[in-house]
């Protein structure tokens, strides 16, 4: 095994171009587990810890440009107002020790359906900026996840920045696990209200081969909220609408039975989380509930 | 490969490090510092918690090569680290070559509480003393990780709520399930810290 320690982003891209099989390591919270357990013996480890630009973020007019290695702790502490859904999701990641090391870039690189950041990114709307010596490109989050632990990146590419839409309305995140800390999601659900476009976006974690949006549920809800004039009136969402939204969200899942839970339970729980997160965000939107920054 | 880094305030060098090796392995097997415990090797249990550039991390998930040029504080250096925080460098740690704990001293380090007969104080940090006083040490395996995590909590939050303590220690498992005493110990250390101010 070789340990590559590029000092700059350009060096990192050159190293990845020369050794496309090199495994990037940042927080190490996925990669080191595999190495410790002898599940993986990469020929090259590509350490990204020295690259400062990956640890920086920038709040722009419309988006937050989040460096791939910005830790979950930093997101929780600094980006709560701009990225409430992702901040809530970050708070559910493992433990303080893990949140101090891990970041969204690693979640995306690993592309596990159970990654905590994914539902929040899907709900907020995001683009992943990947780069290689050939150039850079933006991959829409909806096109990023291509299979179980697979993503749309080429072997010579590295994740540089995640461009996440700044919240224009309330966002919520819900995760099911056996305790509050140190759990891999049994399933998870992210929901974002976008009052500017009068749309609702969602993200489902750990209930399909990839993180997915509950598109049919979103379409139904967007139409129902529009027809009922809910965005203007700020009325409480009719229980029948919330119920149908939950059922459609549940139907968007394609889960499996595994050690953490059954497919049946996951479908059920996703429906419940969809209804609850809709209720929470809508209360916030109506101005009667908790603040935009979430409460976890 | 060779790794140069700072351990407990002193510059150290580890040789013949395998590229896939963890910081935990380097500390235990190459530096002779077995205070950080090796248990789950997947970041679940927190018994290998150390400070990396001041931040609590699971040393089993840090690749050895990633600590090149960086600063690590282990439980063996915790008493000294806490002392420096109070005396020489209030409000922060210390990384200059003159301070810190030598590797020999760290290897020989033992928890010696205040002697009941002579009243002589051992080299314990306030959090270590509080763990002993509160009976928060049972089998002791999780203790080093908990001490490092709890010390960092009290460094950044002088009067933590129970919720804050639970949150800060949520990544440290105790298989004796002695959590209540552990919470007592952190509360005790926090109270003593407040009294001292």
From TrEMBL, chain A:
Transmembrane segments: none annotated. PANTHER family: XANTHINE DEHYDROGENASE SUBUNIT C-RELATED (PTHR42659:SF2). It holds the Pfam family FAD_binding_5. This is FAD binding domain-containing protein. Residues 1-169 form the FAD-binding PCMH-type domain. Keywords: FAD, Flavoprotein, Oxidoreductase. InterPro entries: CO_DH_flav_C (IPR005107), CO_DH_flav_C_dom_sf (IPR036683), Diverse_Substr_Oxidored (IPR051312), FAD-bd_PCMH (IPR016166), FAD-bd_PCMH-like_sf (IPR036318), FAD-bd_PCMH_sub1 (IPR016167), FAD-bd_PCMH_sub2 (IPR016169), Mopterin_DH_FAD-bd (IPR002346). The keyword NAD does not apply.
């Amino acid at each position: 095994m070789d340990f590559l320690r590029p000092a700059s982003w350009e060096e990192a891209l050159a190293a990845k171009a020369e050794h496309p099989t090199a495994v990037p390591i940042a927080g190490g919270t996925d990669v080191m587990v595999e190495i410790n357990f002898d599940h993986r013996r990469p020929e090259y480890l590509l350490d990204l810890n020295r690259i400062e630009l990956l640890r920086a973020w920038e709040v722009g007019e419309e988006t937050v440009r989040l460096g791939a290695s910005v830790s979950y702790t930093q997101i929780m502490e600094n980006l709560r107002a701009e990225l409430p859904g992702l901040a809530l999701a970050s708070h559910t990641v493992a433990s303080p020790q893990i949140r101090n090391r891990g970041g969204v870039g690693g979640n995306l690189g690993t592309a596990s359906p159970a990654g905590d950041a994914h539902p929040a990114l899907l709900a907020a709307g995001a683009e992943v900026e990947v780069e290689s010596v050939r150039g850079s490109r933006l991959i829409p989050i909806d096109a990023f996840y291509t299979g179980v632990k697979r993503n749309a990146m080429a072997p010579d590419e590295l994740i540089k920045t995640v461009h996440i839409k700044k919240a224009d309305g309330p966002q919520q995140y819900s995760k099911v696990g056996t305790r509050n800390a140190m759990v891999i999601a049994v399933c998870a659900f992210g929901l974002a209200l976008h009052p500017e476009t009068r749309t609702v976006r969602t993200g489902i974690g750990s209930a399909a081969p990839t993180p997915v949006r509950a598109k049919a549920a979103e379409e139904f809800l967007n139409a129902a909220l529009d027809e009922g004039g809910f965005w203007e009136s700020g009325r409480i969402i009719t229980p029948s609408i919330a119920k149908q939204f939950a059922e459609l969200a549940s139907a968007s899942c394609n889960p499996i039975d595994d050690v953490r839970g059954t497919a049946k339970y996951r479908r059920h729980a996703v429906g419940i989380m969809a209804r609850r997160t809709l209720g929470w965000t809508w209360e916030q939107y109506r101005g009667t509930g908790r603040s935009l920054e979430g409460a976890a | 490969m060779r790794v140069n880094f700072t351990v407990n305030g002193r510059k150290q060098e580890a040789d013949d490090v395998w590229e896939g090796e963890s910081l935990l392995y380097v500390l235990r097997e190459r530096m002779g510092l077995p205070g950080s415990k090796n248990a789950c090797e997947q970041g679940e249990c927190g018994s290998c918690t150390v400070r990396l550039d001041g931040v609590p991390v699971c040393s089993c998930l840090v690749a050895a090569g990633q600590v090149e040029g960086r600063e690590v504080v282990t439980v063996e250096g915790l008493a000294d680290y806490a002392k420096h925080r109070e005396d020489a460098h209030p409000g922060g740690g210390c990384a200059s070559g003159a301070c810190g704990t030598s590797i020999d001293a760290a290897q020989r380090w033992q928890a010696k509480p205040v002697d009941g007969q002579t009243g002589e104080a051992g080299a314990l940090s306030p959090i270590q003393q509080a763990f002993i006083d509160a009976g928060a040490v049972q089998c002791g395996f999780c203790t080093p990780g908990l001490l490092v995590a709890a010390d960092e909590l009290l460094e950044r939050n002088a009067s933590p709520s129970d919720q804050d303590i639970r949150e800060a220690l949520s990544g440290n498992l105790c298989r004796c399930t002695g959590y209540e005493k552990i919470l007592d110990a952190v509360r005790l250390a926090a109270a003593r810290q407040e009294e001292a101010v």
